[in-house]
Amino acid sequence: MQDRKILLDSLPTLQRQLRSDPEALKEIAHKAYATNPWFTEEFVRLAVHAITEKFLDKTACEQWVDAYTQSAGAPKSVAIIMAGNLPLVGFHDLFCVLMSGHRAIVKLSDKDAVLLPWVVDQWSSVLPALKERIQFVSRLDKFDAVIATGSNNSSRYFDYYFRKYPHILRRNRNGVAVLSGKESKEDLKQLSHDFFRYFGLGCRNVSRIYVPDGYAFEQWEEAVEEWAHLADHHKYKNNLEYNYALYIINNLPHRNLGNIILKEDDAIASRIGTLHYSYYSSRAEVTDVLQQHRDEIQCVVSGEPVEGWEHIAFGKSQEPLLHQYADGVDTMEFLTTV
C-alpha cells in the first residue's frame, strides 16, 4: 500500500462511483444536515463535486504527486485534527497523508462527522487495503506528526500540546476580493459565489472586498439574486436579522441587499450574512494593505492578478486545486520530511 500507483489506479473507479449514485449522496447529505444544519444538500453536493472533479482526476493527481519524493523509511502515523466549518473540509489533508505514504489518525469535528467516513467507505469498497491506513479516533494517541486546523482560540492549545511534534497548525483566515470597478454583471455574479457558498463559513470565502474610490453598488442587487434562497435558511436568516438589527440600533452605515449586508469596515473577517468593503485610491495602496494582513488572508480573488498573490478568478475561491494548500504551507512537502 506504500506504492502510490495503487492509490492512483483506484481513483477513476472512486470518481465514477461518487458520480453515479445521486440517491446515495442525497441520503448521506440528509444525515449530515441532521447533524449540522449548515450542511445543506446543495452544499454537500457542491463539496463532493469539487473533490470528485479537482482531486480524483488521475492525470491531475499524477502530475501533482510526481513533484514530490515519497517519504523514505517506514510509514509514519500522522494525526489530523479536522475542522467542521465546511462539508469534507479535511479531505485534502487526508488525501495528502495517504499519497505521501503515511497512515492517518483522524479526529473528526462533531460538526462534520458523517461525510468523511462515508467517502472513506466508498474508497475502501474500491481498495479494501485502504482501511489499514486510516483510523478514526475520539482521542489522539501514538502519533508521529500532526496537522491541526482550528480557531485562533484553539490554536493556543495546539501550539502548546503539539510543540514537540513535527506539525502544521492552522488558524482563522478569510478570502478577500479586489475590484477594479470595471467588472461586468457576470463578474459580480461569479464573485457572489465566493461569499455565498457554504454560507460564507469557509476560510476561502470572501469576507471583505476592496473597491476603488467612488465605486457604485447599483448592480449588486441583481448580481446576488440567485442566492436569494439562502435568506430562507433558518440559521442564516437568524444571523442576517440579528446583524441587521445591530447595525440599525448602533446607527452603523450599511446596505441591506436582502440576503447579505454590505458594511464599510476595515476588518478582514465579517459576521455571517455580512460582507465588508473598503475603498482604495490606488492599486499600490491595496497591495500594501494586503501585505499588512497576510497572516489573516487565505486567498485573493480578482479579475486581474494582484502583485504578491496567487491569482484566483471570480467564482473560483471554493474550487481549490491539489497544489493550492491552506495558509500557503505545502502539506506534501511537510509530509516528505516527517
Secondary structure elements and pairings:
Layout: H1 4-20, H2 22-35, H3 41-55, H4 58-65, E1 77-81, H5 91-99, E2 103-107, H6 115-126, E3 134-136, E4 145-149, H7 152-161, E5 167-170, E6 174-178, H8 185-196, E7 206-212, H9 220-223, H10 234-249, E8 255-256, E9 261-264, E10 274-280, H11 283-292, E11 297-302, E12 311-312, H12 331-336
Parallel strand pairs: 1-2, 1-4, 2-3, 4-5, 6-7, 6-11, 7-10, 9-10, 11-12
Antiparallel strand pairs: 8-9
Helix pairs in contact: 1-3, 1-6
**Proportion of strand residues:** 15-25%
The number of distinct structural domains comes to 2
- Our count of helices gives 12
Unreliably modeled segments: none
Largest sheet: 7 strands, mixed
CATH topology of the largest domain: Aldehyde Dehydrogenase, Chain A, domain 1
Spatial strand arrangement across the major sheet: 8-9-10-7-6-11-12
Q: Could you say what the CATH architecture of the largest domain is? A: 3-Layer(aba) Sandwich
What is the helix/strand order? HHHHEHEHEEHEEHEHHEEEHEEH
